[in-house]
Specification:
The complex is a heterodimer of chains A (167) and B (198). Chain A has no helices and 13 strands. By secondary structure, chain A is mainly beta. In chain A, strands 2-13-4-9-10-11-6-7 form an eight-stranded antiparallel β-sheet, with no helix packed on it. In chain A, strands 3-12-5-8 form a four-stranded antiparallel β-sheet, with no helix packed on it. Chain B is an all-beta fold and 198 residues long. Chain B folds into two domains: 30 residues, no CATH class; 167 residues, Jelly Rolls (Sandwich), CATH 2.60.120. Chain B is 2% helix and 42% strand. An eight-stranded antiparallel β-sheet of chain B has the order 1-12-3-8-9-10-5-6, with no helix packed on it. Chain B starts with 9 loop residues before the first helix and ends with a strand. In chain B, 39% of the residues are buried. Classes of the chains: A mainly beta (167), B mainly beta (198). The interface between A and B is large, with 60 and 55 residues.
């Protein structure tokens, strides 16, 4: 029986600058979370960070591949204190640099949480694909989004979607 | 998710855009158009997962698989895709991937499955599952060869993130899609969701 896939859990549009945006008390009845970020910050072209359940311990790891106008690179590492989408920052007040995080099986308690993310930075002529892992089997009940420094400016928009889960 | 036409492009207005959005609104998942059609979460390990009877979904333009998986063995990291049960050498694949040390392309043709999807193996941390989102485009068409495209990724001692495409060189409508490790099984807890995209 087909069931609508996407559900908007919450949209936040900042009316003033903020150092972070938190989605809390996340409904546990869905399959995946999808976070879209259309934001700029006041401290330059800074990466965008995510933390789950307020965990800032060294429990995150990543691999990414980035393409620039004349070269590409890849890096991976473990024991990070957050998920960091590298090429995701934008300055100024013209939005349109959309960041996309797919947070898979977020409510599962038998899996680490895997995240597929895509980012871009027009001013740095960069595009990136990233895979992240939060080495925890805890269900994700909250997530914090923040720039690596400075503040998100007013007008920045953050939307948290969830996908239907079969019952 | 919906397919959004571009109202602006460098080709049509001679403006150089640094963003892939070329002045259009950002992509936002369209909440009303896409449906969850079926879902399999393994309660015992399995050598493959097959979604069949896809002809019943011909009112959707495209199909998508959202999957979270790992292997039961140390050799089962490669996963392949087959359509309509065809095991002939009728597939081709391309990939752009990063493994932490570099970004590489690869390709293969005349192969018996679409490939270049990798997942964690049994020696990786317990609970470490990889994930991927696979689009099967225009699957009901009888005038186009079938095309898959996907993004996959996982973080282990052998980390990967990649963008890939797969071709089944046949114009038949796709009525079944098999997802299988090259060897061994998908582990318990692996999840496969079939989505219809209008």
């Amino acid at each position: 029986m087909p069931t609508p896939l996407y559900h908007v859990l919450e949209t936040v549009t900042l009316t003033s600058s903020a150092s972070s945006v938190t989605f809390s008390s996340i409904d546990q009845s869905y399959g995946d979370l999808i976070l879209t970020v259309d934001a700029a910050n006041d401290a330059g072209k800074r990466p965008t960070d995510l933390n789950f359940n307020s965990d800032t311990g060294s429990n995150y790891s990543y691999v990414y591949a980035l393409g620039y106008s004349s070269f590409a690179l890849s890096s991976s590492n473990t024991s990070q204190g957050r998920i960091r989408l590298v090429e995701s920052g934008r300055t100024g007040t013209t939005f349109g640099t959309l960041l996309l995080f797919n947070i898979m099986d977020y409510a599962a308690t038998d899996k680490h949480k895997s995240v597929l993310a895509r980012g871009n930075s027009d001013s740095r002529q960069a595009v990136g694909m990233e895979a992240h892992r939060w080495a925890s089997t805890a269900a994700i009940t909250s997530l914090d989004v923040k720039p690596s420094s400075g503040n998100f400016i007013a007008g920045s928009t953050f939307t948290l979607y969830a996908t239907t889960k079969a019952v | 998710m919906s397919v959004k036409s571009l109202s602006s492009s460098s080709l049509t207005n001679n403006v150089f855009y640094r963003s892939l959005l070329v002045g259009n609104d950002p992509f936002i998942p369209f909440t009303a158009a896409d449906d969850l059609l079926a879902e399999v979460t393994l309660t015992s390990s399995a050598s493959s997962v097959t979604f069949s009877g896809l002809g019943a979904y011909s009112d959707y333009k495209h199909l998508q698989i959202r999957m979270v998986s790992r292997s039961t063995s140390t050799s089962g990291n490669n996963v392949g895709f087959r359509m309509n049960g065809d095991t002939g050498s009728n597939y081709a694949s391309h990939r752009l991937y990063g493994n932490g040390s570099g970004v590489f392309p690869s390709s293969a043709s005349s192969i018996d499955k679409a490939l270049y999807y990798l997942q964690p193996i049994s020696s990786d941390d317990t609970g470490n599952f990889g994930s991927g989102i696979i689009d099967l485009l225009d699957f009901s068409s009888t005038s186009k060869t079938a095309t898959l495209r996907w993004m996959y990724g996982f973080q282990t001692t052998n980390s990967h993130v990649g963008l890939c495409s797969g071709l089944w060189n046949n114009t038949a409508a796709v009525t079944s899609l098999e997802i299988a490790p090259f060897s061994d099984n998908f582990a318990i807890g692996s999840r496969f969701s079939l989505v219809g995209i209008r």
